[in-house]
Every structure is written in C-alpha cells, then in structure tokens.
Amino acid sequence: MQADDYFAIQNLLFSYPFTLDRGDFDAVGRLFAHADVYSGGVLMASKDPAKVAASFRDWVLTYEGSPRTRHLLANVMIEPEGEDRATVRSYVMVFQQTDALPLQPVIGGDYLDRVQKVDGRWRFVERHMGNDQVGDLSAHGRDFGIIRPYRAN
Q1: What is the pTM of this model?
Q2: Long-range contacts, 31-36 (Cβ 8 Å, 24+)
C-alpha cells in the first residue's frame, strides 16, 4: 500500500461527515453502494444506496435541508490488508445546534470500516456504526428506540 492509498482512504472516510452534515442523504447512500452497513450491530442495508439514503432520511431530522450537525472523526487507524484492502477504525462525536437546542454533543461512538479498491478506487465494503454515548437526541432523530448503546470496535 502506497501513501496515495492512505490519503484516498482518509478522503473516503471523511467524505461521510461532509455529505451527512449537508443533509445529502443520496450522497451518503452512494458512498455505501458496495457495502454492507450495520448500525447498532444490525444490518441496515446491503449494497443498496437507495436503502441507506432512505434509512438516514427517515431517521434524521432536518432544518431547511440540514440536520444542523457536525460529525467529527478522530483516532483514525488504517490497517492495510494487502494492496487493495484495509480495515479502518475511528471515533466519532456528533455535535448539534438548532434554534431550540444549544450547541452540544448528542452522540459519541465509533466506526469499523472495511474498504477495498473497486475499479481502481477505494470504496466502503462494510461499515459498523456504534453509538455508546447518547445525549439529547430530541432535535436529531425521529425514533430513539433504535439507538442502542453499542461499540463497533
């Protein structure tokens, strides 16, 4: 694995918060077009970008199109598994602010990703989303019952 591969994997990883925080759920779905996506240990979608987009659209509250969030990724570890595969581990902290909710962390968790080169580009092939720190989600989601404390790593 070359340095360019590490940069490409990081850019793939970091593209998720940018698309999600813009409220571009279709772009989020396209990021996982080649992936099995798990949330809280349960399969959310398998290689189905429309289903991934719908899952986020159905759960996340938006304000004029934006969820008013900032997903911050930290402690990113890329572990190569040959020339065209890698495991990526990271922490996530989600901050939110609305007209009624002061700026605060609402979810803390982690991601466990498996990435692979597909047609010469790095793609997600598996994502596990864990949320083990849960704050005030009243302005963030529609169904709080689906959030179960869970660690992906």
Answers
A1: 0.92
A2: 31/124, 32/124, 32/127, 33/123, 34/116, 34/118, 34/123, 34/124, 34/125, 35/123, 35/124, 35/125, 35/126, 35/127, 36/125, 36/126, 36/127
CB of 17 closer than 8 Å to CB of 25: no
Q: Which helix (H) or strand (E) holds 50?
A: helix 49-59
Alpha-carbon 14 to chain mean position: 9
pLDDT in tens, 40-68: 888 999 999 999 999 999 999 999 999 99
Is the C-alpha dihedral spanning 21, 26, 31, 32 positive or negative? Answer: positive
- Span 12-48, pLDDT tens digits: 999 999 999 999 999 999 999 999 999 988 899 999 9
Q: What is the mean pLDDT of residues 81-88?
A: 96
**Tokens standing for residue 19:** 């698309």
Calculate ∠ Cα 65-145-142, nearest 5°. Answer: 20
> For the chain, what are the domain ranges?
3-146
CATH 1.10.10.10 fits 3-146, yes or no: no
